[in-house]
Design goal:
The chain has a six-stranded mixed sheet with strand order 3-2-4-1-5-6, with helices on both faces. It has a single domain, classed as Glycerol-3-phosphate (1)-acyltransferase. The termini are far apart. Helices cover 32% and strands 14% of the residues. By secondary structure, the chain is of the alpha/beta class. The chain contains seven helices and six strands.
């Protein structure tokens, strides 16, 4: 682990990660000095093993198939307004690849700008090797390492109308830093297209 001193000791903050394994949120939550509330897919709440853990940890449920995301937005707003730490996987789901990250959704930048909070980029290494989305059980002899980057601020965009291309640029900035910290490739800079039905699409509120 490195860089945990970059996480503010208090106040609202978003932590953004690369995502390759169910173990990503557990790995960070166990070493994070503050409680962290991840935006979590609804299927994990009914999972035999992970269900009790995500409920106990107070994670924020997102209904992936629902087009109505106001409940999610309200929950994230409440957590940030209450000075809490919110965890987001901008890729929206676990990558199928050990090296390349998926095209990120812009919700992470939208929450950061609208909530006037910094984003802490985090790179996770080794989680794919321990338990990828293709594995049923973890490989316990493998090691996961976590690398926390410096806060990214978007103060210049606070209280302004921000268009979609700008949100894409801000998201790319976050993802490139996560790429540097994780050693994973992010090959989607500047790409605007995306499947809006997936997990972390955050429409304008």
């Amino acid at each position: 682990m490195s860089g945990m001193e970059n996480l503010p000791a208090e106040g609202p903050v978003i932590v953004a990660f690369n995502h390759q394994s169910y173990l990503d949120f557990l790995s960070f939550a166990t070493i994070c000095p503050r409680p962290i509330h991840f935006i979590t897919a609804e299927k994990l709440f009914s999972h035999t093993f992970f269900g009790p853990l995500v409920r106990l940890a107070g994670q924020i449920k997102v209904e992936r198939r629902s087009q109505e995301k106001n409940c999610l937005h309200d929950a994230v707003d409440w957590h940030l307004n209450s000075g809490k730490v919110v965890g987001i996987f901008p890729e929206g789901t676990r990558s199928h690849d050990s090296v390349e990250m998926l095209h990120a959704f812009t919700g992470v930048a939208k929450y950061a700008v609208k909530g006037k909070v910094p984003v802490i980029p985090v790179g996770i290494k080794g989680a794919y090797e321990v338990m990828s989305r293709h594995d049923k059980i973890p490989k316990l002899k493998k090691t996961i390492s976590i690398h926390v980057g410096r806060p990214i601020h978007f103060i210049e965009h606070h209280d302004k109308e921000v268009d979609e291309p700008t949100y894409r640029q801000l998201t790319d900035k976050i993802m490139l830093e996560i790429s540097h910290l994780s050693g994973k490739k992010y090959n989607h800079v500047g790409k605007m297209e995306h499947d809006k039905s997936k997990l972390n699409h955050i429409p304008k509120s």
